[in-house]
Design a protein that fits this description.
Blueprint: H1 5-14, H2 27-34, H3 40-54, H4 62-69
Length: 71
């Protein structure tokens, strides 16, 4: 089944974030919370957070993300 442009627009508009830059956290937050130095792990963790926010596994707020990554 083909989906139309209107449906694609509705799906896009329903996304909690449209770009990683819209995440409520950044690499500095992660380094502070995890007490770790900068590294590739930040990019990996930001990707996981982005995926979780997009799939509604965690709300896009600093508090919710911090709790989610520490569990």
């Amino acid at each position: 089944e083909e989906i139309g442009l209107l449906e694609v627009e509705q799906i896009y508009e329903s996304l909690p974030i449209k770009d990683r830059s819209e995440l409520a956290v950044n690499g500095h937050d992660l380094m502070e919370w995890m007490q770790m130095k900068s590294g590739v792990w930040i990019k990996d963790l930001l990707e996981k957070i982005e995926d979780a926010v997009l799939h509604n596994k965690v709300m896009n707020s600093k508090e919710a993300i911090k709790e989610w990554i520490q569990n």
